[in-house]
Amino acid sequence: MGLPGRPARSARAQSFALSVFEQYDSGLQRYLARRLRSAQNAQDLAQETYLRLLHLDRGEFVRKPQAYLYRIASNLIYEFQLRERKTPVMFDSQALEEAAEQGIELQAGDEPERLGAEQQIEVMLAGLPPLYRAVLILRKRDGMSYAEIARTLGISVHTVKKYLARAVAQCRSVRATLK
Amino acid sequence: MAWTRNGPHPLAEEAARWLIELDEPRPEVLEKFAAWLETSPRHVEEFLLASAVWKELDDVDAGRRMEIRQLVDEARTNVHRLEHSDTTAALPRTPPARVRRVRLAGVAAAIALLAGAALWSILALAPEEYATSRGEQRALKLEDGSVIYLNTESRVEVRFSRAARDIRLLQGEAMFSVEHDPERPFRVMSGEALIQALGTRFNVYKSLAGTTVSVVEGLVAVAPTAATAERTPPPGSALTAPGGPVERVAAGEQARVSRTGEIVKHDVDDLDQIVAWRERRLVFRGEPLEHVAREFNRYNAVQIRVQGATVRQRRLTATFDADDPRSLADFLRRDTSLDVQDDGASQIVIRPRH
Q1: Nearest CA to B214 among B223, B226, B206, B204?
Q2: Is the predicted pLDDT of residue B109 greater than 60, yes or no?
Q3: For the whole model, what pTM was predicted?
Q4: ipTM of the complex
Q5: Residues 38 to 77 of B: which have CB under 8 A from any A CB?
């Protein structure tokens, strides 16, 4: 998937655990978090990512679907940003981040100050039922496995996963409304 | 109302489930996940958005101010039977908490709880009605965890008993996200159609022509009720319709039940189109203008009228914001063969230009 100007990522054998997202591009996360409000951009990105996924060698894709997804999306964001700036950018992660910032500012115009990251999390959590919050905290803050959370709260692993998924879905909806 | 636009979209929930599954991955889910991603760009989009949120939540309670014990207690004292308002505040059921309460509080509490349970089952027999006005949408969280999303100008009656969960769609359109419970069938009656969910998500639209059932996920059984004059089947009875056929409708399929009880089944080209109303989008794929106008009119005080047989039959493929009928007017103005009159208040008239 080598794209011009982008150093090839080493094909390290890696798990699909938490780290996969960071591994690809922290720019991806920031980009998406901001673009949650800009449905059109998120859709464009998804559309392009989707088309590229379809052209992947299926065997490889099946082995690492999540990692591929993030990598393709990261590459695309990089391309989008190049397009937006219309001037070539030398690749380095700092420049990429700045490009992302500027791209957003151009889009968003003079908006009132955004919430800080911490406040944003608080707003997202506020709408969640207490047990969803508990499960989320045990996972994210205390780093417990699903089985450990289940034991701690006296619920099943299935329920743990269900609460986490609902928490994420609800946070995502709330997140989309945040300024 | 903020939440009508922002309650979790069914796909957002699906994406979140995958995300959680992959956070502690088992090799056998990877292939299924890949297949899911390949199904639609919407899946890709929702998964990326869920990932971004999940990453943001890394810093949850970094200050360590929250006590798990306190959250659990809070959950315990907050068990509601039915959420009348929004799903975003919906509480999970907490059976372990209930059990523990009985054990701790002893016999007196147990008796009180039994009395409560008896009262609960009596209350459960009384049907409750929920309705939306024009342009309004609403999500109802039921005590079993199932959710009813009510579209504009719609009305449902909910009757839960120990043996069955019965819903009657009296008017309009609703989507049902059903929690599986083999002991208590989840049934929806809509005019001429009787629909039994087998743990699933589906949309029911009651119009003048009949009822349309579209299945987003899982499987439902559909039978006509014309013969039984819309009589509620006795609780616990299997889905039966004397003399009528029972159709099984799977994900991606749609069944239309006519007023006379005939069922026609076919594939849905685009499931997104079926669920789009929850985002207040109207999606048309080659639908006649007459139908497009009718859909807009369900949501808005401004009414669109289409005049002239050929204009009414003009087919349109487009996506609109349901709350913005003037976007349709603007779109049609580009067609010089049409005359679009907007009185600026309550009516938009579309007719052929002479």
Answers
A1: B204
A2: no
A3: 0.43
A4: 0.72
A5: 38, 40-42, 44-45, 47-62, 64, 66, 68, 71-72, 74-75
